[in-house]
Amino acid sequence: MNKKSDWKVHILALIMVIVAEFIGIKKFQVGPGTVLLLPMLYALVIGMFLPLLRLVDREDMDIASPYIGLSVMYLTAKMGTTIGPNLPKIFSAGPALILQELGNLGTIFLALPVAVLVFRMGREAIGVSFSISREGSLAIISDLYGLDSAEGRGVMGGYIVGTLLGAIFNGLMVGFLISLGIFHPYALAMAAGTGSASMMAAALGPVVAAYPAMEAELSAFAATSQLLTGVDGLYMSLFVGIPVTEWLYRKLKGKAADNNTRKEAAN
Amino acid sequence: MKFSSAIRIFLISGVLALLGNFVGFKIDPIKALPGMLILLALVIAGYALSKVSPVKLPSIAYISALAIIASIPGVPGADLVTKYVGEVQFLALCTPILAYAGISIGKDLGSFKEQSFKIIIVTFLTFIGTYVGSAIIAQVVMKFTGVI
Fold it and tell me: For residue B126, what are the CA distances in angstroms to A104, A113, A231, B131?
């Protein structure tokens, strides 16, 4: 096989990184949360325009795709080095804080059935449903399936939506949950640590605003929960989240197929 | 992919991150270099481990484990790891990933567009599921243990 050189891809990536970093982080306050525009999003958007400008062809795209999974490994290493220093604190967290981490898997049982049964999505559903699609999730999906797979499209879509609208949505959602009055403010604060700093801030904000006297405890609970998610997130997703998502996906797909045949039979 | 080709890509994307770290965060590449080399060593070690280990786990599981161990207070050199890697910004490491993703994404643009509405709704549901799932467990455990 006559393989094309990959230097063009690297040079393009270099230019994209420099342009994106030069523009820098932009923040907008919208309602209850901030819209955060990050350099990595600009890099992605620039990339989408390259084929239109005829700067890349199909072969370049194929060359670039394994490099995503390799460059993700630096991010994994960096995230790991921020966990070590915090490890001792985890042993001092209470049972409620530790056990609520399992609740982060709740997304699978809400998002996946809707994705598969209502929207009839394919394996994109796995990528987008197993987590809130933050950077660690990109790393997991790119290592297990590749970011240019169906699962990769799912997690990338979730990543873009979350980066742009995650903080606002979380702010509105928590405001609504407070008004229902079902949950104790401690529980709401502990739930705020889902792995994204901007989403945590947006989720904690309304709780603190509603219970200002408890501000110190609420912030401490949210920060500890955030820390715990940082520590267990990768392994929980890898060893529990993804296998459970795969299992439920197969179950739901079987069901969806059954429903289709039943409908056809009825017709 | 051959091991040597992977190392080559690690080096190239490391340079991209170092430059992004300079342009975006004004951190002198010379100052960030030791941290970047520590990350590179962790990445290569974890990647190699995943290739030779009889336990078949994704490379990121090994890389993350090595990085955690190397930075636990009390482990020899952990304070240096934390200090030097601190010069390499998290966001600067993200940009090269999405640059490569951006180049390769062109071929999926059609199916991306087609699914965009569904993906927005499902992503919102992941926020609800993750948050409410945690809130329910926290509420029940605190009730059970008498905290609230």
Answer: 9, 11, 20, 8
B108 in contact with A at a CB cutoff of 8 Å?
yes
Q: Is residue A2 part of a domain?
A: no
**Alpha-carbon distances of A249 from A127, A157, B33, B147, rounded to whole Å:** 11, 18, 44, 37
In 3D space, the residue among B32, B97, B119 whose CA is nearest the CA of residue A17 turns out to be: B97
- The percentage of chain A sitting over the pLDDT mark of 70, rounded to a whole number, equals 94
Contact residues, chain B, for A191 at CB < 8 Å:
131-135, 138
Query: Are the beta carbons of A121 and B102 separated by less than 8 Å?
Result: no
Q: Count the domains in chain A.
A: 1
Which token pair is A184?
């104790």
pLDDT digits 0-9 by tens, A212-247: 999 988 998 998 998 889 888 899 999 999 999 999
Do the Cβ atoms of A74 and B70 come within 8 Å? no
Are B129 and B82 in the same domain?
A: no
| pLDDT value at B136 more than 90 | yes
Which among B73, B91, B106 has CB closest to A85?
A: B73
Tell me, yes or no, if B11 comes closer than 8 A to chain A by beta carbon: no
- Contact criterion met (CB < 8 Å) for A106 and B1: no
- pTM equals 0.87
Mean pLDDT of A129-148: 92
The whole domain housing B113 covers 107-148
